[in-house]
Amino acid sequence: MDADQILVGVDIGGTNTVIGVLDDTLTVLGTCRIDTAAFPGAAAPGHPAPFLDRLAGAIRELAAATGDGRRIGRVGLGVPGRVDSECGVVLGASNLGWRNVPLAAEMARRLDRPVAIDNDVRLYLLGEAIAGAGRGYRNIVCLTLGTGMAMSLMLDGRLIRGHNYNAGEIGHDPVEGNEWRCNCGQIGCLETIASATGIARLARAKVREGAATLLARLPEPQRLSSHDVYQACLQGDEVARSVFAFVGATLGKKLLTAICLLDPEIVIVGGGAAAAGPFLLDPLRSFIAGHYFQRERPPKLCAGQLGDEAGVVGAAYFAAVHGRQAEQELLPGKEGFRLPIGPL
Amino acid sequence: MDADQILVGVDIGGTNTVIGVLDDTLTVLGTCRIDTAAFPGAAAPGHPAPFLDRLAGAIRELAAATGDGRRIGRVGLGVPGRVDSECGVVLGASNLGWRNVPLAAEMARRLDRPVAIDNDVRLYLLGEAIAGAGRGYRNIVCLTLGTGMAMSLMLDGRLIRGHNYNAGEIGHDPVEGNEWRCNCGQIGCLETIASATGIARLARAKVREGAATLLARLPEPQRLSSHDVYQACLQGDEVARSVFAFVGATLGKKLLTAICLLDPEIVIVGGGAAAAGPFLLDPLRSFIAGHYFQRERPPKLCAGQLGDEAGVVGAAYFAAVHGRQAEQELLPGKEGFRLPIGPL
Question: Residue A317 half-sphere exposure, CB side, CA atoms within 13 Å?
C-alpha cells in the first residue's frame, strides 16, 4: 500500500456500525459510528441500499476528516452473518434482514475503491491476532458475547470459514436442559445463555423470582442489561455473580470441547459481555483448569485488548491482504508493523 | 516418486500393527500384521528398540515379497499418540509406553530410507481423504472408535494438528453425568462411552443388571466385545441396540458441537466399532438431523471405506508428500491417481 493512502475498516452490527480510518501501520486515525437500526433499509429484507448509501457517505466524511489529505486505499467490512468472502456476497445476515447481498460490489461501486468483506467475528479475531491479545499466536479460538454469541478460529495461521461459511456458529449448539427459545427458532441454543442478552435474561429471572439482589432496586429491573449485572457484581452482589458463574460454567463446557478438539494456544473472549472481565473469565478459567485433560498445557484465556476497534482493525487488515492469501504470513504481530504490500 | 519404487505405510496400534506396501497409484500391493503387544519393548517405557527391529524386518520382508523387485522409496508411520511430525518425534503414546521417541530417525536408520510419522487418526483421515469416503472433500471431520476414541480434522484441505499436537483429542472431553474413570486418569471422558471398550462395558453392565438380552447367553458374558454387541443387534436384540443408541446419542452431542464449530462437508466414522454400521450411524445421524441448526445444510455422515487399510494408505501418502506441504494440493481424490512428485 502506498503511504499516501489510508485503509478503512467497518464493523457492521445489528444496532451500531463502527467505522475506522487507519494508516499502513494499522494505527486507527479516527472512528465514528452510525446507527444501523435507524435505517429501515438495513433491516428490511432485500433493501439495504439506503443504509449502504449512508455508510458510504460516513466513510467518505471520516476519511476526509482524519486522513490528512490521503485518499482511501482499500475498504474492509465485517458483517454479522454468513459471508462468502471470495465472492464478496453476504449469503445471510438475520439481524440485518439481508440475504444474498453482493455487498462488496455494492460498496465498491459507491466508493470506487476495492472492498473486501467477511464475517464480523472472524475479522474481530484477525484484528486481535495482528494487533491485540492474539499477537504472535497461530492457533487462536475467539469467542464474542454480544446480542448473540459466536466463535471464530485461526488454526495454524489461517482463518477457518467452513464449507458453508458457517464455521464458529457454536452459539446455536443446544445446551442440555436449556428450554429457552433462540432467535434462530431452535430450543436451547448456547447463545440464549452465553451472550449479553442471555446474561440480562437470567438476571431478570432472578429478580422476578424475588432473589435478594441490588438489581431489584433498579428503576426498571425488567429492562436491565448485562452491563447492569456487571455493575452489581462490582458492588459484591452475590446473585449477579452467580449469573456470571452459571454462564461461565455453561459456556465453559462447550469451550472445553472446542479446546479438546483444536488444541489452541490462546482463547480470546470479546464482545460486549467480555467487559465483565474476571466475573466471566474466572469461572471460565476455573472450569477449563478443572476439566481439561492436558493439565500441564492449558491454553491462555484472556479478554480481547482492542475492544470495539478489533473488528475495525481486522476489517482494514483483511482488506489490505485480501486476495493475497497472506493472512498467515503477516502474522505474528504488529511490533513495528507496516503492511508489506505494493501499490494497490 | 520413481515408478520403480514402492511406498510403505504402517499403522501402529497398541494391539496390532498393520504394514502395507503400495505403488505410486497408492494401490495396496500387500499387507501383513505384527503383534505389537507381543513385544515387551513396544510397551515398556523407553525401550521400543526390539519392536522397531521387528517392524523394520517385517517391512523388508513384505517389500521383498510383494514389491516385484522394486526398492522401498519412502516409509510412513501412524502412531497412536502425540506426534511432532515435523521433527519426527513421538512426544507421548500411552498405549505403547513411549515418550519422546525419535521414531522417524530410528526407523530411517534401520531401513536407510526417508521416514515420516504422524498421529494415526490423522493418517487414517488422510487415507480416506485421498482414496476413500473423503475423496473430493476439503472439510472433513473423522472420528475413530476403537480401544479409545479420537477425531481428526481436515479443514480447507489441511490437516489440523494443534499447538501441542493434541488436536482431535475429544475422547477426553468429559460427558456430563458420566462417572466412569478413563485410562487417562480423568473421570467421565467421552471415550469411556464412545469406543469399542465403552460399548462392551455398557453391554456387560446390562447383562449384570439382568437385562433380557442374547448377550447373557454368551459363554463368558463378562468378557463380551463390541463385536458381540453388534452380532446381537443383527439378531434383533433390543438391549444391544439400546447400547448403540445410547452411545450414538452421547457421541452425537459432542459431534454436533464439532459440526457447529467447523461446518464440515462430511463426517467419516472409522475404527473397529464403526463396523456396527447403521446400529451406530443411524442414532448419530438422527441426533444431528434433529438438532443441527442448519437443517438444510447438514454434513454427510458415513463409515470409512478403506477399513484397516485407511491408516496404511494415509501413512504411505503422507510419507510421499511429507515436507512438500502438498497435502491439500493433491486432494481431491484418487481417480487415476499418481503421485505427482519427482525422484526421491
Answer: 32
